[in-house]
């Protein structure tokens, strides 16, 4: 067992590690001329105002464009994924090329939320990266296992931080397999040093994007649904499905413990920023992962508490509804007005607009399959339909349905942007 002083120090370091592994990794860029800076400052305010106005459910001057370009940036820059996963300089170069060439209002971050070097330093077992375990241009893979076994519930519920430090961390990182050892302590130092470097690069890049390109970010911070924390990261799909039948009360107790932790995580990763929404990618809540009774019992109540807890602190949530959320729209409408931006993937956007549009901004819905396999004309027609049917009264943000990968065609991204700029102007 660790002494209380050592435990507090290790927990602080651990929190930094767990926070940073899901943040964008960016760096600074070249200085701009005085004229460029002046123009960029004006452009930054114009874009940010447009974005904030739409999120408030109102009409800006034109429909804002927000894209989660992700691995597509590497493709556009002519880089392999192993380069952007492991080289921070190339990572930001890919982002710079996008910002120089594409007229968007906000972006959701750099080419990837992952930095392979940091994960390698601590011996991460839950991720595979291009150029290491995978082919040089293959997207990273999450290795889902039951990293938390059923017998861990009581210890997790009693003290989740202690359980994470003493049980979970050694299981998912080979360098921490012997807590308190020289090797484990060295890994903590390596991880902390890597995080400091990444955080500095991140701050430099955000300032660089604003100054040199007039580009705001679309989100700040990240948060997860408590059920996804438990069912994704800890128990895995097979484990959580067994638990729903065999130990439902344990699930409920664990979810209750996670609510304040997840609220704190969302606020901590936002670092005090309140204008932009926190990013909430939703995984196991889409239909039909859970039946309606399970969703109402296990998924929605703790998630609702997290969103309301963030909103009470002045933090809006980017409700990134991956998959189909049609059966749950009425329940989502219970949230406070303007507390979320509802992002549409496979949900029926007409239903989403009808049920939620009077309370929340709607975003997304250009199918990734269309972006990858359709023609520019087809993309343009789809975008025109969205603008005509769902953007006329404001409160709409143009975006693809999901995160853009390397299969997306460059010409289709151009078609999305140009069509929105031509037809998405409010009179």
Automatic annotation (TrEMBL):
Residue ranges annotated as coiled coil are: none
Q: What is this protein called?
A: Uroporphyrinogen decarboxylase (URO-D) domain-containing protein
- The domain of life for this entry's organism is Bacteria
Quote the CDD domains the UniProt record gives: CmuA_CmuC_like (cd03308)
A GO molecular function for this record? uroporphyrinogen decarboxylase activity
Concerning InterPro entries, the annotation shows: Methanogen_methyltrans, UROD/MetE-like_sf, Uroporphyrinogen_deCOase
- What residue stretches are annotated with the Uroporphyrinogen decarboxylase (URO-D) domain? 205-423
Task: Please name the Pfam families in this protein's record.
Answer: URO-D
What processes does the entry annotate via GO biological process terms?
porphyrin-containing compound biosynthetic process
